[in-house]
Amino acid sequence: MKINVIGVPLHLGCDCMGVERAPNYLRERGLVGIIRRNGHRVFDLGNLYVPPVSEEDRPAGDDSLKNLDAIVEVNNNLAELVYDTLRGGAFPLVIGGDHSLGLGSASGVGKCYDDFGVIWLDAHGDLNTAETSPSGNIHGMPLSALMGMGSRELVNVYGEGFKVHPENVFLVGARSLDEGEITLIYRENLSVYPMKTIRENDIDAVAGDIKRKIKERKIRNVHFSIDIDCLDPAYAPGTGTPVRGGLTPTECKRFIDSILSTNLVKSMDIVELNPSLDIDDRTTRLCLELIDYVTNRI
User: Fold this and answer.
1) CA pair distance 286, 270, nearest whole angstrom
2) Of residues 124, 165, 232, 251, which has the active-site annotation?
3) Which of 35, 202, 226, 236 is 20 to 30 A from 62 via CA?
C-alpha cells in the first residue's frame, strides 16, 4: 500500500504548547522506517503550514472560539491534501497536533466518499459548540462541526454544511463529557460507547456492535481518528487532557484490529501526543507501537 504521512503541527485548537512538536518528534524516532518495514511505500509529505497567532490576533473571527481563523485555514488545507491523497490511491496517515485537525481530515474523506463513517476513539466527546464549550478550545468541537452543528466557519470547512451523517458517527472511550455534549448525544441518538460500557461489555463486544451498524447502514468507507488520550494516563501520560480510567494498550490494539478487519478504513489520524508532557518517552513509544500495529494490518 502507498501511505502518505501528513504532519499537522497544530496546537491552536488546544491552546497548549508542546503538541505541535509531535509530528517531527515521531519522525526523529523512526516513524517512516517503521511503516516501511511493514511493506508499504511511504511518502512523507512533511508538515502543513500553521500560521503564527499572537495574543493580539486571537479575537479574529468568532471571539468565543480561540484562534478560529488560523484553525479554519489549516483544516481547509489538510482537507485538500487528504482528498488528493485518496484520489491518488494512497492512505492518508495524519499525525497531529491537536484534535481540531480531525475536522479537516474527515472533511477531505467526505468529499471523496458519500458513504463514509467516522470512528472517533477519544476520552472526550469533541462535540461542543461555541455555545456549550467551557473553554473556547476548538479541539473540543470538530466532531459536532462535521455533523453540521456549531460555528458556521467550522461547519463550512472544505464545503458548506455537514460532512457526515450523525448516524454514521461512532464515539468510543469517552469518559469526560460536558453537559452540552451529553444533550447533543441524546438529541441526535449518537452511537457512543463510554468507558463504562466498555468495562461492562468488553471492547470486543463494542467493536462487534460498531461493525454490525456499519454493515446495516451500508457504510463502505471509514475515517478512523485516534486521540492518544483514549488510553489511560498510566500508559500514556504525554497528552494535554488526560483522564483516568481509559483503555489499556492491549484493549486499544484489539479494537483497532477488529475495526481494520473490515477493510473499510481508508484514512487515519493519530493526535494529541505532547512530548513536552511525556514521561521517559512512554507515550511516544506507545504511539510508534500503535502505528507499527496499524501499518502491519492495513
Assistant:
1) 11
2) 124
3) 226
Q: Please say if 62 is a catalytic residue.
A: no
What 8-state DSSP symbol labels residue 60?
S
Does residue 126 have an active-site annotation? yes
Q: Which residues contact 44 (CB under 8 A, 6 or more apart)?
A: 5, 7, 27, 32
C-alpha distances (whole Å) from 74 to each of 24, 49, 51 are 17, 7, 8
Domains of the chain (ranges; CATH) run 2-295 (3.40.800.10)
Grid cell of 46 as nine digits: 512533511
Determine phi and psi for 265, rounding to 5 degrees. -75, 120
Pick the catalytic residue from 20, 153, 272, 278: 272
**What distances in angstroms separate CA 106 from CA 24, 109, 163, one per listed residue?**
22, 5, 8
What single letter denotes the amino acid at residue 190? L
* Digitized pLDDT (tens) for each residue of the chain, 298 residues in all: 999 999 999 999 998 899 999 999 999 999 999 999 999 999 999 999 999 997 655 544 455 899 999 999 999 999 999 999 999 999 999 999 999 999 999 999 999 999 999 999 999 999 999 999 999 999 999 999 999 999 999 999 999 999 999 999 999 999 999 999 999 999 999 999 999 999 999 999 999 999 999 999 999 999 999 999 999 999 999 999 999 999 999 999 999 999 999 999 999 999 999 999 999 999 999 999 999 999 999 9
- Residues facing 192 on adjacent strands: 171
